[in-house]
Amino acid sequence: MKPLIALVGRPNVGKSTLFNRILRQRSAIVDSTPGVTRDRHIADGEWQGKQFLLMDTGGYNAESDLISKAMLEQTLMAIRDADIIVFVTDARAGLSYEDLELGKLLKRNFQNKQLFFAVNKVESPQLIIEAESFISTGFTKPYFISAKDGSGVADMLDDILETF
Ligand code: GDP
Ligand code: MG
Predict the structure, then answer these.
(1) Binding site for GTP: what residues are annotated?
(2) Residue 38 has what pLDDT?
(3) Distances 50 to 3, 17, 128 between C-alpha atoms, Å
(4) Which atom of ligand 1 is nearest to the CA of 11?
(5) How many angstroms does the Cα of residue 1 sit away from the middle of ligand 1?
(6) Whether CATH 3.40.50.300 fits 4-162
(7) Which spans in 63-152 are helix H?
(8) Where are the chain's structural domains?
(9) How many angstroms is it from 83 CA to the middle of ligand 2?
(10) Average pLDDT along the chain
(11) Which tens digit of pLDDT belongs to each residue from 30-76?
(12) Residue whose CA lies nearest to ligand 1 atom number 18
């Protein structure tokens, strides 16, 4: 069985860009369930000879600054089957209340899964410094990445693949 890696985070942090970056052109979507209640896309991936499934999630909209119950439930449902969860945040937008709540939720509900913490959109040294504040989430090891230019993504994937 190929391990399933899920990308999770609030809208606009760069999950879909990261999904495409990791898969490059080589993979096809193997399961797509678009929609408001259960939006997820799963594709076959390969890295350093290891095969895995990668899941992009989305489709929720937090209307207010409070994380919506629907978003939480939808996220939980989509990633229930995942072996590894990559929690994606945005260094340019900074850590929001939604990020913190989602982070807590992931830690609470998925103690049996491997959790990785990605701080995306880090393309300059200045942003790396700002991203250091993300360590306060309690996720001990942040990966500072850019889904757009690819920096840091290979190192994170190496560590993810070490776990299986
Ligand atoms: P999603 O809603 O989490 O799937 O986010 P998307 O992948 O759709 O990206 C949201 C926006 O952020 C788009 O305009 C992307 O081009 C931009 N974006 C994604 N990754 C990066 C990155 O690493 N650096 C920068 N600067 N922008 C990014
Ligand atoms: Mg998306």
Answers:
(1) 9-16, 56-60, 120-123
(2) 52
(3) 10, 21, 29
(4) 2
(5) 30
(6) yes
(7) 69-79, 97-109, 125-131
(8) 4-162
(9) 20
(10) 83
(11) 556 555 445 678 999 999 999 999 999 874 555 544 556 766 676 78
(12) 14
